[in-house]
Amino acid sequence: MRTVVFDLDGTLADTAGDLIASANAALAEMGHPPQLVMGSDDATAFAGGRAMLRLAAERMGHADGEALADAGYQALLDAYGRDINVHTTLYDGAVAAVDRLRARGDLVGICTNKPEGLAVELIARLGLTEHFPALIGADTLSTRKPFAEPLLETITRLGGSRDNAVLVGDTITDRKTAAAAGIPCILVTFGPTGRAVEDLNPEGLLDHYDDLERVIAEVLA
User: Fold this and answer.
1) What are phi and psi of 60, to 5 degrees?
2) pLDDT at 192 over 90
3) Geometric angle at alpha carbon 149, from 146 and 154, rounded to 5°
4) Does 168 share its domain with 205?
5) Do 143 and 107 touch, CB atoms closer than 8 A?
6) In a 10 Å sphere around its CB, with 0-12 CB exposed, 13-18 middle and 19+ buried, how is residue 110 labelled?
7) pLDDT tens figures, 40-88
8) How many structural domains comprise the chain?
9) Quick one: 21 and 125 in the same domain?
10) What is the number of helices (H) and of strands (E) in the chain?
């Protein structure tokens, strides 16, 4: 029985639009004009809320980006929680691919650096709660990706084994997490950095979810 663990943002779903909107809403609450641009800043959005606020601080010439990130982070989370799936879309073929894995008896779960409550809410709004019986978020444990523990705990909660598991993600964080856990990593090439993820030397590359089963079989062979 195989265990397939997915990252969420930038892997299963394109959440960048809503993340960027929440960052700009937080900036507005602090009295600043919008700084993040949908489409142009998607890669930063997938790096997290604090990364977006630090980029905004840089663009505004603020010397202490971390202070602005601290000041605006809760407002960003609140804004995101209110409008979590206005712009978000699932990547083409993602749900069908997960359905095929489940039909063949594979175990599937989510390991994300999105706070658990927000991840659970987003999955529910997308109608996918029943698809993923285990979900570990950034604050579920005392550590988050790229530490191995969140990934390994996801596998444990699914009842799977690390010896026959794979992580599907989109960033260097996922690559490092899989390496720390000692399991292979598949990186998607349809995120904002495209095929540049090939430079991270993952065990597999995924160009479209139609190819997921084949790529999993190759990396676990």
Assistant:
1) -90, 0
2) no
3) 105
4) yes
5) no
6) buried
7) 999 999 999 999 999 999 999 998 999 999 999 999 999 999 999 999 9
8) 2
9) no
10) 9, 8
Annotated catalytic residue 7 = yes
Catalytic residue among 7, 18, 41, 174: 7
What does the pLDDT read at residue 206? 98
CA separation (Å) from 121 to 60, 81, 104, 163, 164? Answer: 32, 8, 27, 31, 29
Strands 13-14 and 89-90: antiparallel
How many residues belong to the chain? Answer: 221
Residue range of the domain that includes 164:
3-14+88-220
How many C-beta neighbours within 10 Å does residue 199 have? 9
Amino acid found at 21: A
Last-in-domain residue among 49, 82, 115: 82
End-to-end CA distance of the chain: 13
- Strand order of the β-sheet with 135-136 is 135-136, 107-111, 3-6, 165-169, 185-188, 204-206
Query: For tokens 């960052």, what's the residue?
Result: 23
User: pLDDT digits over 95-119, tens only?
Assistant: 999 999 999 999 999 999 999 999 9
* Cα-to-chain-centroid distance, residue 105: 24
Determine if the peptide bond prior to 133 is cis (ω within 30°): no
Main-chain dihedrals φ then ψ at residue 188, nearest 5 degrees? -80, 150
